[in-house]
Write a structure and sequence with these properties.
- This protein is mostly helical and 222 residues long.
- Helix content is 60%, strand content 5%.
- The chain has a two-stranded antiparallel sheet.
- A hairpin with a 4-residue loop joins strand 1 and strand 2.
- Helix 1 packs across helix 3, helix 6 packs parallel to helix 8 and helix 8 runs parallel beside helix 10.
- The radius of gyration is 17 Å and the shape is globular.
- The N and C termini lie far apart (44 Å).
């Protein structure tokens, strides 16, 4: 049974996530104790609204960074919970989990070293590959987010990302483009010609808002 207090905080968090300004929203979320905030943010990963899912993942990254400053083991608990959500035995689907991992790891070098390989494993057919099509989108986004900060050319990861450029799903193509460009320091040489002329529109999270752009426009936004 869901406790009334949890429902109240979840509703409050949901209203904050609808804020127009990212920093205003984060400032409000920082007024909520970390251990109280974690559960409601996890619950919003399952929102039917794509924007709320993206924003809650971004907010989880900010929350975990707050935990790191106080007690890094509490941040690891959040990461383990995200990993558990992606495990078949959890009984869940894992919406937002890899996106949140990317947000968390890009903010902290210690956690990045510990969990980087696990993050990459979710897009690797030889690793913990996520079969669900929508989760594959999320895993590509999460990897690309992480690579915004810790981008260093890695042949194995590049080879894992490249096949997604031939996907039938334009969203996966666009998110793979973002990840590859972040890893290659914005070097377009990895982009096949068909990517640069792809007119399919995809949802693209700019850090707080969800915009719709053509796949061919992704390189210009990175």
């Amino acid at each position: 049974m869901i406790k009334p207090h949890f429902r109240k905080i979840k509703k409050q968090v949901g209203q904050i996530l609808l804020s127009e300004n990212r920093e205003d929203a984060f400032d409000q979320l920082r007024q909520i104790p970390e251990q109280v905030l974690a559960g409601p943010l996890f619950s919003h990963f399952y929102s039917l609204d794509d924007l709320i899912r993206f924003r809650s993942s971004a907010a989880m990254g900010d929350l975990t960074q707050r935990l790191v400053k106080k007690k890094i083991e509490d941040a690891r608990i959040i990461l383990r919970r995200l990993m558990w959500n992606l495990n078949d035995e959890s009984g869940g689907i894992g919406w937002g989990s890899v996106e949140a991992m990317g947000e968390i790891l890009k903010r902290n070098k210690t956690l990045a070293k510990e969990y980087e390989k696990i993050l990459f494993s979710y897009i690797d057919p030889q690793g913990n590959f996520l079969e669900h099509e929508m989760l594959q989108r999320g895993s590509l986004w999460g990897v690309g987010t992480y690579l915004e900060t810790y981008a260093s050319p890695n042949k194995a990861v590049i080879e894992t990302l490249l096949p997604f450029l031939d996907s039938n799903d334009p969203v996966k193509i666009g998110y793979a483009v973002r990840a590859l460009l972040n890893m290659s320091h914005k070097n377009n040489s990895l982009m096949p010609e068909h990517i640069l002329s792809d007119k399919n529109e995809i949802p693209f999270f700019d850090g707080w808002d969800l915009i719709f752009i053509k796949v061919s426009a992704v390189p210009r936004l990175i």
